[in-house]
């Protein structure tokens, strides 16, 4: 009863199926980036995401809403993206007074003047700020 | 022989222009495209529903982190009074929510603290994007949908 054929059918086939499934699930994926674990350093440049401008109202123009200017930081060399998927074009970014407004993502070390020719924005005061803070 | 096949198009960028496409960092270096789409939808939908302007900063914050987050919030748009900034620094394990004066009327600090609590619990489990999306959902639920933004029919 326990001949070679028995072993082949009742042990070999389950082992083969298990091996195939293990290969399919455990093989490293093409696009697997390291998952964030609390406590490990964050080695990416600062990114700032902002929502899509709202196209509300019945106006005929389809450009970005003029009330929402792009956000940018002169000191840290970062600026908000137009959206996370479709970054804002460089010409839409304001030229900051210190000339350090960087492009969308992580090229803070570049010394070339980024940004378009729009005038520097003067942010209106936001009044007493609220919010919350948390650590983990 | 093989060099003709290896060449890629290269946009010429000068010092006066923006960096060319080849020089820019890939967009999905920090988050994958699926995660970026989730963040994008959460930011856009919560901003449209509430009329506030939610922005998200992910990166290092100078210490004191609160002062840096408030400085970022002051530059987060044309009208910072109605802006809400969520600043996440995974390296320092700090999340800051800054609301302007107009936004703070609809988002009291207790609601922000509750959203921050749910975000930090997700961050502690290693789920950055899920925590941010859930925090945005809580904040926009708390802020509500003003009558002026409802479609009239």
Descriptive account of the structure:
The complex is a heterodimer of chains A (136) and B (153). Chain A is an alpha+beta fold and 136 residues long. Chain A has a domain at 69-109. In chain A, 17% of the residues lie in helices and 11% in strands. The longest helix of chain A is centred in the first third of the chain and has 23 residues, at 4-26. The radius of gyration of chain A is 27 Å and the shape is rod-shaped. Chain B is α+β, with helices and mostly antiparallel strands and 153 residues long. Chain B has six helices and three strands. Chain B has helices spanning 3-6, 33-50, 65-74, 101-106, 109-124, 128-143, and strands at residues 53-58, 83-89, 94-99. Chain B has a three-stranded mixed sheet, with helices on both faces. In chain B, α2 (33-50) packs parallel to α6. The model of chain B has no long low-confidence stretch (mean pLDDT 86). The chains are: A alpha+beta (136), B alpha+beta (153).
Order of helices and strands of chain A: HEEEE
- Point out poorly predicted stretches of chain B: none
Strand order of the largest sheet of chain B: 1-2-3
3D shape of chain B: globular
Please identify the oligomeric state: heterodimer
Radius of gyration of chain B: 19 Å
The count of helical stretches of chain A stands at: 1
Mean pLDDT of chain A: 64
- Estimate what percentage of residues of chain B fall within beta strands: 5-15%
Q: Tell me the number of structural domains of chain B.
A: 1
Helix content of chain B: 40-55%
CATH class of chain B: Alpha Beta
Radius of gyration of chain A: 27 Å
Mean pLDDT of chain B: 86
């Amino acid at each position: 009863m326990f001949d070679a054929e028995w072993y082949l059918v009742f042990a070999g086939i389950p082992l083969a199926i298990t091996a195939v499934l293990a290969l399919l699930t455990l093989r490293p994926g093409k696009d697997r980036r390291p998952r964030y674990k609390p406590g490990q350093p964050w080695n990416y440049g600062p990114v700032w995401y902002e929502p899509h401008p709202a196209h509300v109202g019945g106006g005929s123009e389809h450009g970005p809403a003029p009330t929402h200017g792009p956000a940018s930081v002169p000191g840290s060399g970062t600026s908000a993206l137009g959206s996370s998927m479709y970054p804002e074009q460089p010409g839409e970014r304001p030229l900051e007074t210190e000339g350090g407004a960087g492009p969308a993502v992580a090229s803070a070390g570049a010394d070339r003047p980024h940004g378009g020719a729009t005038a520097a924005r003067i942010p209106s005061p936001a009044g007493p700020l609220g919010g919350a803070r948390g650590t983990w | 022989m093989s060099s003709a096949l290896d060449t890629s198009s290269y946009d010429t960028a000068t010092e006066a222009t923006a960096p060319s496409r080849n020089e820019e960092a890939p967009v999905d270096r920090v988050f994958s495209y699926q995660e970026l789409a989730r963040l994008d939808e959460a930011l856009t939908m919560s901003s449209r529903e509430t009329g506030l302007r939610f922005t998200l900063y992910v990166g290092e914050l100078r210490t004191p982190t609160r002062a840096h987050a408030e400085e970022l919030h002051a530059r987060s748009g044309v009208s910072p009074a109605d802006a809400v900034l969520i600043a996440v620094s995974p390296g320092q394990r700090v999340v800051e929510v800054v609301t302007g004066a107009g936004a703070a009327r609809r988002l009291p600090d207790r609601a922000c603290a509750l959203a921050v609590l749910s975000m930090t619990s997700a961050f502690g489990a290693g789920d950055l994007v899920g925590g941010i999306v859930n925090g945005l959902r809580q904040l926009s639920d708390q802020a509500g949908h003003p009558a002026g933004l409802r479609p009239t029919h």
